[in-house]
Amino acid sequence: MSINLTATPSGWGQAGRRRRRPALLRHTQRWLRGLLLPVAGVIIWHILTLVQLFPAHLVPPPLLILTDILELAADGALFTHIAVTGWRVVIGFALGAGCATLLAAIAGYSRHARDYLDPSLQALKAVPSLAWVPIFILWFGIFETSKVTLIAVGVFFPVYLNLLSGIDGTDRKLVEVGRINGLGRVDMVRRILLPATLPAYFTGLRAGLALGWMFVIAAELMGASEGLGFLMLDGQMTGRPSIIIAALVLFAIVGKLSDTAITAVSERLLHWRDDNFSLQEREHA
User: Fold this and answer.
1) Residue 161 contacts by C-beta under 8 Å, 6 or more apart in sequence?
2) Can you tell me whether residue 51 is helix, strand or coil?
3) In angstroms, rounded to a whole number, what is the distance separating the alpha carbons of residues 88 and 107?
4) Domains of the chain (ranges plus CATH)?
5) In the predicted model, is pLDDT for residue 41 greater than 70?
């Protein structure tokens, strides 16, 4: 029997394309399944408003909310509000995640550093988010600095705790194997510590981003004139619940899109993990 070696690369390419197609199909199916519950909820909501189960001035129908969103989009205000809120979340997320990553790395590397840092950070974690608002307004005023700082505080703690947990959960046997094979500190971090902590780190980033979107509402209630939080406050002050719910829907959409972006990066970097597949998929593998 002869083996045609020249055909092997082509075969690999075809196999890779065959693998990519089912992966794309799985992602599409997951997206469609994820849309079923919101679509069903909107349909039920619409039916309940038609039969007037809830007062229209308190629970407006979905079509009215869609109309308000389209009107905001037509005059350009919608994109301005989304862009302003998104910019605040991005800057606050970068600041909070960056500080959390640095301090968690220091605390995870040095037991003495953790003894100094961790008790204070754990105590600050228990402070409610709204409790920071008066002091931030006093220190930074009602402009962008106070808003971004409040978002950064919300992002900080999930990232810090998850990364520190990932460092603590690194298998000691892997570290010993690295030492036996003569890995230096840089190689130890790059080849053992980093892959071991990335899953927990991305979990912290996703949780921190979700809190960032929550904290931006409190931040924009501190005197903003633009943003989705301001849009909610404007709907409350003018007695338009459709605007409030429209802002909530927009928060959900942009929050989901940002979470999807982080998830896509994590799946790209953590493709080797078994938990990227469901239990059913593992059983059929």
Assistant:
1) 104, 125, 204
2) coil
3) 28
4) 58-283 (1.10.3720.10)
5) yes
